[in-house]
Write a sequence for this structure.
């Protein structure tokens, strides 16, 4: 309304500067009303006019705007939503940012063919953007509604492009690095061959760091038993051995070695056997270790670096020991022992006596990790000192399944002193050892909890220990909760209480699905 | 009481965290309850455990710990334990002395209060009239002072107002508080906030000043107006209506569904607003309560969205009475119920605006609307038209998640320009858009 705009303008400058009362009233009744205050001072006339027009325009105002804005509705869900109890537990987990709980709940929902309740979606999507570790767990239980929301919100796009999304196979190409790797995994799951063809096409335009990251994404997916995939990728991986980046060459060689590609395996065997010779004598044998005298240019495609100055343990080494370590880390130690005509245990003992003890043993470890040689673990574990035990187990954690590591973790835990000796406590080491497996067995749990109760009851622990204790709840078998609940309750320790709370919440969650 | 409701009783997030650490039965050598109270002994740092007790009627707390917080972490923990670990409590016919004496004390204080309120003690009408007259004079003086200020502003122009310091507005508000016109003080504070806004505040400022001028003029001739309009003007100026008078208003008995409950802290005062909807009469009501930040537990906290208050509400007098004083009622779970279909509420608002120029925000339920975003703002669309709306980012996405692009019934506060979104119905269940437990 023009009169309102004129009145606002006049109000800004004030009636002292602009005393205009000849307003064009939009209705006769208003003009008549205004006529009754002609005798009042200018500012009163102005305020009356302002109030009159404001009330007049407000009364009967139609707020609707004629405009058609539409949004494509979300397709109907084919799976049910989670129960109200699970939604309440997830709501609490969200408020406490209890990520392991959310991960476990999403896994259970997926296993039971259920979806996140709609009202939970925005909060959990925000949390997944904040904590990227959640992305792969939340994405499968978003349902169509979650996907629909993700399509509307740029921040959540990375979660929305899950299985079933047609654009995922295109989006991974242009996405940012962290999102890109998630998308690549999804694209590979959706269309393995097509995605790898895209990857090959893009390869030369990627920088070295990205090439390595991309290669690392699907290398673990290739298994020796999958002959089709092995044949399809061998040629390309061999091309990668000519890459400009040493990291990419080493990754490609490692993958080829794991797949048992013939020429690579032969080259590795030759390289390793050139360094190691078993000298057999009547009374005892010895291992002669002769690392290469110098770097050969032929080794470049295998990702062998010319100068490796430090071992993974941090020890400084010379160039020859570096070459020895790199060759050994590509070979399966069990196969190597067989080629040398001795058993693995003996090879380890002989290597431990050699001048290149550390390079040999760490090289065998790396080779065992690459080839997943689970039988190597107990043999090597037998000769490890107490001090080496924890870092060694931690180095093996990601390469082996729980079944291979559980006996070793159990032995290590059992060997720890249960009680404090003066100020010396072992609960910190025990917690780190427990983190080497995803799930603790019942005997391991009993050993660990006895130790923790003996050392922590009535004690205050720092926040980082408290966090480690609360995270431990996700590794314990639920069957033991009734047995330990009272003792943990009475421990009078903040950290053990956090552990118990998480343990109980996890129990409640599992109970919700137990009746299904 | 569930966890969310109990957490709402805690004075701060730190108390909830501290209480959470005590929510294990092992910390409590004694845990017991009966129909009236919950009590327990909590191990503390001293040799004797703390005695903690809760009155289940009205959520009263007492603890022997030295904490100045109220309720203390022991009280919150005991309540949380009772809600989550009920099996750990033993039911007893009688409470120990330290609980029963406390309950008796509470009962006797409540009884005295009720007796005072209901007493037929002869009112000193002369003194009462004198007090009323004194207040009227103070309010009129305040109204005149503000009228002069407004005329001065109209003469010199609004342009200088954005340059005024915040203190200028607070001083004006303080003078209105002195004049016993808190409603006018609130308007002054709102104007201060309005001009401090970065965007062009002039049209909105002019509208607010127009409303203020009309109010001051009308109050000047209040005696000539109809009783309902008089009550409205008194409410606008902020003259309180004694609760005893409100309770004399006829009770409206209904099943009042709680649609929203929120707390806002302003000027060292916590204001709790609760929106109710009478399921039978389909009438809205607003429970408004105030408390000092340290006395939040005194507010009604044992109900929230998802509950129904079955019982009586007494409406305050006024033109478009929404504010109520709760009478006797029972709290129960709302259960499934579809959104009510109300006659075109926006048209009704426009009509009410004609009769009451100070009509503020009004609750509304509007059906068959789809939330959509366009031009960087939020809308509710019905296919051919759109209605402007507003909500926080989190609430907006929750609404979108509920809607999934399909029309649904929404609940919100309409201020004449846009709908502030508060809740929505998904099938037959009502969802408040606030998260039940916000991240700590």
């Amino acid at each position: 309304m023009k009169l309102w705009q004129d009145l606002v303008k006049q109000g800004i400058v004030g009636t002292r500067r602009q005393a205009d009362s000849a307003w064009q009233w939009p209705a006769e009744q208003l003009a008549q009303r205004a006529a009754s205050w002609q005798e009042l001072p200018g500012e009163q006339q102005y305020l009356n006019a302002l109030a009159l027009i404001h009330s007049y325009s407000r009364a009967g105002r139609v707020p609707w705007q004629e405009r058609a804005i539409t949004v494509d509705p979300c397709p109907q869900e084919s799976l049910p939503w989670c129960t109200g109890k699970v939604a309440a537990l997830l709501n609490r987990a969200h408020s406490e940012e209890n990520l392991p709980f959310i991960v476990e709940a999403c896994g259970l929902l997926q296993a039971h063919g259920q979806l996140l309740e709609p009202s939970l979606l925005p909060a959990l999507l925000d949390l997944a953007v904040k904590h990227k570790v959640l992305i792969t767990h939340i994405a499968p239980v978003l349902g169509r509604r979650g996907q629909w929301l993700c399509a509307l919100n740029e921040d959540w796009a990375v979660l929305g492009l899950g299985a079933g999304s047609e654009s995922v196979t295109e989006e991974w190409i242009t996405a940012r690095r962290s999102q890109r790797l998630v998308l690549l995994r999804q694209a590979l799951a959706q269309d393995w061959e097509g995605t790898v063809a895209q990857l090959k096409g893009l390869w030369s335009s990627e920088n070295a760091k990205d090439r390595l990251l991309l290669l690392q994404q699907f290398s673990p997916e290739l298994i020796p038993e999958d002959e089709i995939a092995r044949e399809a990728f061998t040629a390309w991986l061999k091309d990668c051995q000519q890459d400009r980046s040493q990291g990419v060459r080493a990754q490609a060689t490692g993958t080829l070695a794991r797949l048992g590609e013939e020429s690579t395996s032969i080259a590795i065997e030759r390289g390793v056997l050139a360094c190691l010779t078993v000298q057999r004598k009547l009374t005892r044998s010895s291992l002669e270790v002769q690392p290469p005298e110098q770097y050969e240019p032929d080794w470049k495609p295998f990702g062998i670096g010319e100068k490796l100055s430090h071992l993974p343990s941090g020890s400084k080494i010379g160039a020859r020991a570096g070459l020895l370590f790199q060759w050994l880390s590509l070979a399966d130690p069990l196969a190597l022992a067989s080629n040398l005509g001795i058993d693995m245990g003996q090879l380890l003992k002989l290597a431990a006596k050699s001048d290149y003890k550390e390079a040999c043993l760490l090289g065998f470890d790396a080779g065992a990790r690459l080839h997943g040689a689970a039988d190597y673990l107990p043999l090597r574990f037998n000769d490890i000192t107490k001090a080496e035990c924890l870092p060694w187990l931690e180095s093996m954690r990601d390469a082996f399944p729980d079944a291979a590591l559980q006996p070793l973790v159990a032995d290590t835990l059992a060997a720890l002193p249960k009680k404090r000796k003066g100020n010396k406590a072992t609960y910190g080491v025990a917690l780190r050892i427990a983190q080497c497996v995803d799930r603790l067995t019942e005997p391991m749990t009993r050993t660990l909890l006895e130790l923790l109760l003996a050392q922590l009851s009535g004690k205050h622990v720092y926040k980082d220990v408290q966090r480690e204790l609360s995270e431990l709840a996700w590794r314990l078998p639920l069957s033991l909760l009734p047995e330990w609940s009272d003792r943990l309750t009475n421990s009078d320790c903040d950290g053990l209480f956090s552990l118990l709370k998480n343990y109980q919440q996890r129990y409640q969650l599992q109970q919700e699905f137990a009746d299904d | 009481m569930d966890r969310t409701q109990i957490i709402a009783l805690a004075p701060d997030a730190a108390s909830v965290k501290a209480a959470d650490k005590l929510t294990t039965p092992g910390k409590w050598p004694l845990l017991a309850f009966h129909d009236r109270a919950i009590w327990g002994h909590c191990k503390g740092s001293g040799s004797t455990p703390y005695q903690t007790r809760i009155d289940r009627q009205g959520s009263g707390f007492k603890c022997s710990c030295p904490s100045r917080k109220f309720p203390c972490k022991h009280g919150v923990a005991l309540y949380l334990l009772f809600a989550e670990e009920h099996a750990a409590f033993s039911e007893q016919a009688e409470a120990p002395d330290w609980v029963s004496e406390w309950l008796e004390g509470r009962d006797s204080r409540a009884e005295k209060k009720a007796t005072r309120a209901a007493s037929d003690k002869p009112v000193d009408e002369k003194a009462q009239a004198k007090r009323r007259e004194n207040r009227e004079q103070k309010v009129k003086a305040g109204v005149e002072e503000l009228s002069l200020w407004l005329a001065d502003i109209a003469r010199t122009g609004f342009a200088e107002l954005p340059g005024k310091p915040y203190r200028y507005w607070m001083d004006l508000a303080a003078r209105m508080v002195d004049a016993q016109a808190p409603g006018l003080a609130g308007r002054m504070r709102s104007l201060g906030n309005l001009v401090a806004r970065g965007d062009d505040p002039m049209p909105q400022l002019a509208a607010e000043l127009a409303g203020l001028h009309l109010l001051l003029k009308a109050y000047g001739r209040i005696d000539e107006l109809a009783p309902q309009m008089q009550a409205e003007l008194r409410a606008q100026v902020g003259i309180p209506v004694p609760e005893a008078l409100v309770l004399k208003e006829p009770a409206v008995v209904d099943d009042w569904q709680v649609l929203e409950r929120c707390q806002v802290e302003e000027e060292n005062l916590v204001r709790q607003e609760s929106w109710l909807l009478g399921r039978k009469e389909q009438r809205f009501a607003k429970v408004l309560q105030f408390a000092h930040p340290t006395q939040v537990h005194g507010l009604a906290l044992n109900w929230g969205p998802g509950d129904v208050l079955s019982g009586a509400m007494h409406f305050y007098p006024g033109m478009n009475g929404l504010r109520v004083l709760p009478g006797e009622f029972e709290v129960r779970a709302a259960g499934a119920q579809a959104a009510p279909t109300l006659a075109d509420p926006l048209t009704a608002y426009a009509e009410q605006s004609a009769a009451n120029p100070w009509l503020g925000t009004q609750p509304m339920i509007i059906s068959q609307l789809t939330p959509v975003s366009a031009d960087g703002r939020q809308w509710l669309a019905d296919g051919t038209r759109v209605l402007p709306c507003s909500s926080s980012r989190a609430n907006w996405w929750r609404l979108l998640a509920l809607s999934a692009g399909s029309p649904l019934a929404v609940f919100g506060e309409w201020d004449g320009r846009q709908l502030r979104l508060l809740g929505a119905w998904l099938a037959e269940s009502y969802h408040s858009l606030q998260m039940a437990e916000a991240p700590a």
User: Anything to note?
Assistant: Chain B has four domains: 3-114, 130-237, 249-333, 345-432.
